[in-house]
Design a protein that fits this description.
Blueprint: H1 15-54, H2 56-68, H3 74-101, H4 116-119, H5 124-156
Helix pairs in contact: 1-3, 1-5, 2-3
GO cellular component, one term: extracellular space
Keywords: Coiled coil, Hormone, Secreted
Organism: Myodes glareolus
Length: about 160
């Protein structure tokens, strides 16, 4: 290991030139990270739209499944109807945000739901387990969208008390 650092090339530049070069690199890097963040905001919106759109058909089937449950209370059924309605409203709001934040951006294709067979199963235990999983996934996705919206709001709207 050499005892002295090889300063060849550094002695030819003034300290001011070294600072200027370092500042240029720092600003360039900062601009790149801002661009990455903006691209991530675009992706984040697309993910939220995808998640919300992916619940369209499962919520329809959930509504029918809850209505068919023995002993299902009217409160649960009304909550499923409300979630279905609010999901449609949320999807429209997310689309408005996407158009405003990233004009011309295209939506992602949303995933297809594969749990219909279990929700329609003749076996009551299978149906109940499928509904339980559906409720769990719905809750997780709703929380995810709410969190993503808060993060995105902080990134898009300056001085938004985040």
């Amino acid at each position: 290991m050499p005892m002295c650092l090889d300063l060849e090339g550094y002695n030819e530049l003034s300290i001011e030139e070294i600072f200027d070069h370092a500042i240029f690199i720092a600003q360039y890097t900062s601009n790149l990270t801002t661009q990455m963040s903006e691209e991530f905001s675009d992706d984040l919106l697309k993910v939220m739209i995808s998640i919300s759109r992916a619940w369209y058909h499962p919520l329809e089937h959930l509504l029918h499944a809850v209505a068919a449950l023995k002993g299902a209370c009217e409160t649960m059924l009304s909550k499923v109807k409300e979630v279905e309605k609010k999901n449609e409203e949320l999807l429209e709001e997310l689309k408005k945000i996407l158009v405003r934040v990233h004009p011309g951006a295209e939506e992602n294709v949303y995933p297809a739901w594969i749990g219909l067979a279990e929700v329609k199963s003749a076996n009551e235990d299978t149906r109940h387990f499928a509904l339980s999983n559906l409720f769990h996934c719905l809750r997780c996705d709703a929380n995810k969208i709410a969190t993503y919206l808060l993060v995105l709001r902080c990134r898009v709207i300056p001085n938004s008390n985040c």
